Amino acid sequence: MAYEFQTSAGLGRASLASTEPQTVASFYRRVLGWAITKSDGRLSASAGGAPVADITDISAADGIPGWLIHFDVDDLEAALTAVSRAGGAVLPSATGGSAETAIVTDRNGTRFALRAPTTGRREWPAHGTLAWGELITDDIDTSAAFYRGAFGWGLTEPSGPLGRGEWQWHGRSFAGLLPRPPAMPAETLAYWDVYFAVDDIAAAATAATAHGGTRLMPPTPIEIGTIAVFLDPAGAIFTLVQLTTEEALA
Length: 250
Prior knowledge:
Low-confidence stretches: 1-7
Number of strands: 16
Oligomer: single chain
Mean pLDDT: 87
């Protein structure tokens, strides 16, 4: 199976609201090799010259901590209308106050962002870039109906020990859908996880703990490669992934 990392209504970038923006920026720079710049009170991260993420103080981000995944869309207004018609909601503020970014929720209340314009299909994800997203939810059926209705995404049959499905566009996978794992605390709300690509999962996992991260799951093989899950020094959850080689996915 081939994997797609940029589609219509496809994976774009991410933003992080943190109580310790400078600390976590330094953490991700050490773990993922990000270049960090500051502009208008916002920290911007890039990898290999490509924008990856924005990091803001939680006081400037609606008071909701953690990572927020962004999906690029061809027509933002049409996408927002589709979200509403499918039973989701458009929240009143936009990340960074940009007219080209809007925060929305799906039918279960899980937050994500939409961005325009689409930047075109990306190449195989380089080290430090956003490589995958995964919706972890208690309500698979409602989620499947919402994203199919809003964006036309398909969903594969569950596979593997945790019943992971894959969101698809024109038959190509670009994100995952995971029922709440047994080890996930009941008080943790459903969320979109962010996966950052690394060239060497063992080295990156070691760096994450060495620089103040908390390991939630050690390197573990899944369908798309090997992942490891962490909290950053301020408590935001994220995943590192060493992807299966492109040749193996063709």
